[in-house]
Design a protein that fits this description.
Blueprint: E1 18-29, E2 35-42, H1 67-71, H2 73-79, E3 88-92, H3 93-99, E4 102-108, H4 120-124, E5 131-138
Antiparallel strand pairs: 1-2, 1-5, 2-3, 4-5
Amino acid sequence: MKGVGVEAKLKNGLLAHHAYALLKILPEKLDNGNSVNLMQIANPHHTGEWKGDWADYNIFNKELASERWAENPELAKRIGALRRDDGTFFMSFDDWEANFTKVVICPVGGKPLDSDEVTEEDAEDEEEPKGFFSSLFGW
């Protein structure tokens, strides 16, 4: 986005030139049986969220979340969508693709692990994450 400063708040709730974490990609079914691909994203600052389709919170009116949740209460329950300004939010894959232009894959806990390097003890250890996380940048 030319002419938009770093961390400038956009009308859609996202911050320009800001890193977000991609938490999950969820291929799901709407309550009517149609398919939807949702992305669960987190702002590492734990505040400020997407205001478009699938938004779970509006800072000015807590009841003014996206209508998509009211239309799909079973989906909301199944994936644990919560209405709070915690910096974690959902958006469709199409909205994600339209609003983020760069994905950076970062190893967690050191270098990437080859499958022959993982011990049975490591596989059971839920305390220390291993693998990758991704950072998303909206430009």
